[in-house]
Queue: 2 jobs
Job 1
Amino acid sequence: MLLLQLILNGLQVGAIYALTAAGFSLIFGSTKIFHFAHGATFTIAAYLFHYALTNLGLHWTLGVAMAAGGAVLFGILLDRFMYAPIQRHEGSFFTVFVASFGIGIVVENVIGMVFGRSFISVSTSLSRSVELLPDLYVSPLVGLAVLTSLVCFVAVHMFLMHTHAGMALRALSENTELVKTFGLSPRRLSAYAFALGSVLVVPAAIFTASSSGLNPAVGHHVMLISLAATIVGGIGSIRGAAFAGLLIGMVENVALWQVGTQWSEALTFAVLFFFIIFRPSGFFGRAAVS
Amino acid sequence: MIRKRLPALTLAATLFSSSVALADDVSIGAVFPLSGPNASYGDVFMSGANLAAKHANEDHMLSGDLNVLYEDSQALPQHGVIAMNKLVNVEEVPYVLSAFTGVSKAISTLAQRSETVAVNGGGVGPDLAALGEYFWNVIPLANNEVGAASKYLVEELGLKRVTLIYVDDPLGAGILNELEKTLEPLGGELVEAHSITPSAQQFSGVAARVRSSNPDAVYIASYGAQQLQIVKQLRDNGVDQQIISYSAFSLPSLQALPEAKGALYTTQSIDWDSTDPVTKRFVDDYRAANGKTPTSYVANYYNAVRVFALLAKELEAQGKDVTGENLLAQRKATDKFELVGGSVSFQDNGTLLAPIQVLEVTGGAGEIKKVYAED
Amino acid sequence: MTAYILNLVVLISIYAILSTTLNFIIGYAGIFSLAHAVFFGIGAYTSAFVAMNLTPSFFVAIPIAMVLAALTSLALALPALRVRGEYFVAASLGLQMLAVTLFSEWKGFTGGIGGVIGIPPVEIFGFALVKPWHFLILTLVCLALVIAIIQRLVHTSFGRSLKSIRDSESAALAAGKNITVIKTLSVVLSSSLTALAGGLYAFYMAFINVESFMLATSVLVMAMVIIGGTGTILGPIVGAALLMLLPGALSYLSFLPQTEIGSIQQIIYGSAMVLLMIYRPGGIVSPKTRGEAA
């Protein structure tokens, strides 16, 4: 029963990782921007949701809207005012990474100053587990998290496959020049990618805010996991990132069956390390560049 | 939140600028977490130290004004050492208040080398008792607290099987060690011990493990924001057993957490209604300024500063310099100190003994269930 | 006051060694490592261990630490040979996270999170360096030595090979360079010199624990290199001095709320990273010719 319980826990954590990883992978795949501040987007969305519910007393739908609005705005602003100028003059991979890392630090500390550094959580009865089977506890949030992730993935899939903008985004990841010759603006597409990638963290952020709770550094761990998932899943493959995110969440939890929690993070990164050395293209990815 | 902090801040700021101006003034240092995730502890510690300095100055215990110079440790050892270096080498203070087990251990070498007294009133790791002559504790250490917790669980509540969740640092390791030692002679048992990293935030897996070992009670050895996350996630994930912890649970945000209601914790015991003049003045003035009853942390740092004032007063009377070396000698020569909580004496290892009480989290100030005399 | 300045100069020098050695692989070899703190840690733990169990002699403890770091650095050289760009950054990140767990759990060697306390003062030919002055001289000598070694290397054929690999691996291969050997050597050299900084740090602080060797330190050192200027000799030193002086300087601004200083400091250094990358990606000390920096 313990194992089943751990698998269920892994499913919830994995769903959260899958969503953030998919967002990161979408942005990275189509724009080639190593958006390390994706974790900051997560933190902003989570705190806005908490603020809307706890401090403003709004209905949760408005809270979700606020979180989504904040995340999308943050993503688009970063793309426009930070990444675009950097890419204009040089845009080496590392320059982008450093700037992105820098903004992550700024956001974490500004949030700490504005909302306080201690632990906060959104109180909801949904996070309270019920005994489903003897000794098997499941909170309604688990079901919600898994369901929401599925809906999100189907929606993203439909968008990428069947809409004009989605197809253009996929084309962008293949060949920037080609997109230009067809008269599409890579800059506008880049904004689309950031908007869509950022909005994907919102459900994950909200579930984290109501289940495990928040502190200003909460985005850090999620970002590291998304990064690992993107690479293990194969860069450029959203499906791969989501799958790897789910897998990491599972492994992290199921590992508790045998080892202590302090090893779970190391386990994830050991897997990442060996993937990069022996199979850098990941599960579903194209061949690793140079 | 910000507004509430302001008086302490302006006080700290004025102390900073005035320390240069007046040569007669006596300064002591403090290495507290003033920023970072544990900054809220720093605020609590500061309120106690500032009150004691204010009282000492009102009473003219020393020839000049007593100042406390605050430096930020962020509760991290490396920052603590840099802060301690500044206090010892720039400000040349003879006496430094310290907090947190890791930071205290880190600065102890510097304290010993520079013959500066370091006094801890917040960290409770048992190895704090063995950091050299210049390192004192005005707080009973975790071994005293864990002993009382074990007794209460087994003897009063009949809860014999205990599972521990602990941060794998010196404090957590100390608590693990003490639980193993104290439970068994009482007929209890430490069923399982789960170690976690200081940065861990996800505990649903640990909760599942705890549930499957089905203990009578869960002991939590963490601090700061993390312990709130553990409590919430344990309760959310169907762990309904008695939760028990040590003095870190006196944190106001934990006391206010709905999921923590009914949890037990231990602190040193201070009778806030005591008629003893030192205690009464401390409690009355603290209540007047803050509108609530002080916690033991406030009292400990009040006591730490008061111990300095008492020793320095005596040294001044004897015409000696107030140096770390003389303070140490004077402490050894002093039998009893009149502090908040009554008349107490230091053990040879520089640690105070105090009675321990078991409290229950009620959402308010915590309800005292039982008091165990020092042993 | 002098003691305080001494203290700062020692710390700046130690971090300058770290940033100089990191700059060697970032700026000249194009290996963007986020695992620099790992070798800093290995150097510190090994020196402390040797000092406490064998002898606190500088000429025993430091060489052992450097050899050990050189050996473990092969774990970094391996991904550096196989992948580039974001893959390598991710691999080094993985190595960093793994190392932190090992540092926290291998209590016999590292003391766990509690760390190692009471490391004895370092000795040179039986003479214990207790006074801050003496230690400062030792640190400055080490820094000068590290700079001299790297400066010389950069101007030899080895350095030119490195730069040609950084700029175009395939062109270097076509030119007949042995990429495997050159890359591995540069990582090994950089890591062993990093261990020297670790040893100095352990002896100076007399206390070390895992918190000094985590990702935050790797990022801090990386920021020093980037803010100062990659691919220059002076840049990383300027970067180290700036970032180490920042906290001290801020704490003298008494109008800033004391409880927010840690955050303000972080915000300043995060913003500096962002603004520099937008307006001056070469760092404060840009190389003479743009061609060399790219």
Note: Chain B touches chain C through 43 residues (CB under 8 Å).
Job 2
Amino acid sequence: MIYFLCMVLFAIGLYGVLRKRNLIKIIIGLIIIEYATHLLFILVGYRKGGRSPILAPDQEILKIVDPLPQALILTAIVIGLAVTALIVAIAMRVYDRYGTFDITKIRRLKG
Amino acid sequence: MLELYILLSFMIIGAVIALEIKDMISSVIAVGAVGLGVSIAFLILKAPDLAITQLVVEILILIILIRLTLKRDLPFSTSGRWLLNTVVTFIFIAVFLGVAYFAIKDLPEFGSPILRVAGTYIAEGLKKTGAANLVASVILDFRAYDTLGEATVLFTAVIGVITIMRKIGRKKIDEVVNEEDE
Amino acid sequence: MKKTSKRGPREPGMTLIVKTITRLTVGLIFLYGVYIVVHGHLTPGGGFAGGLIIALSFIHLMLAFGKDLALKKFSKAAASIFESLGGILFLTIALLGFTGGYFFLNFIRKGRPFDLFSAGIIPLCNIAISLKVGAGLFAIFIALVFLQILKKEE
């Protein structure tokens, strides 16, 4: 059930990407999709009553949540930030060229 | 896990507000609320490394997006084939959610992951790498190739941003080119 | 974050209140980033989070005082050099693993667990990654900010 709520968040981002005209709204939709994906990975790796994957000197290892999705998502978050910056740079260039963020007006490929 | 449901509902509401509100600054701040909700969710799900990283990344994304919205051109046009587009979009999303509902049934149940690979990491991580933080031992020892690839992607993104934003080569000849902006 | 949108178009930097508080806090933020990087193998954090916090401290300086002072502390060439240095350091550590057998071998002695100097190559890799991530994101931010300033001059 909680996976399905995560998917609903994904679908909202998808709606923004597909339906919105403003370029900023499309970027915001992409960011929401990214968050939903990261959250789904961590939800799959959660263990009920588990401890965080940091060992302490005088404690027995009993139940620890899955460290593998956390390691994968840790790199994915930083990549997501870099890719978002790249998209923002492209959007600013588009604004310079065409003077608008409306994607229906960006038709012609001016030099 | 009631708090997780509440948090996810809050994030869904925040996402809807971020997409539907007309003022751009409010929209960006709503995205910031969603990102901080993700950070708290990571903390509840026992992933403190991710919570720290997500918090800082969220602040940076907020700065970058506010930088983008400083150009005050905010078109809101709904002309064209509005009804057809909306209907097609909603049909697509309904199909997506239906497929997702059946795909989710194949995932392991919430709270009991399959620890086939990670079981080895948990059992032998401290002995083999000597690091107390298992996430650090996974990303820098067991799966360091992954991190190397990530570094490459980051480098490529930096090159891309600098190439797109530079001025030389895009200007006319009579304009003065600032030397600092390589 | 609302402070960033409040920046006046003319004067470099923000008001006196923001500048004073920035002067007090920016060193602490930088120190916290260094702490997170160095203790990355013992406590939550690591190279990615620490590098981001270090980059954020310089961005904080740039937002409060304008671009000139921040670039005087950490110029664009320095960002480029540090990023390349981080990448090369990481790759060198990986290649040094060939002295014992294979790529990314943990070739240094592990030491006692839960010490600061333990876990072989992991702290070194953390430092390399933090250099790379911090310098890379600061370079991205410089590139995004410069366009605004150039447009104003036109």
Note: Chain A has a mean pLDDT of 82.
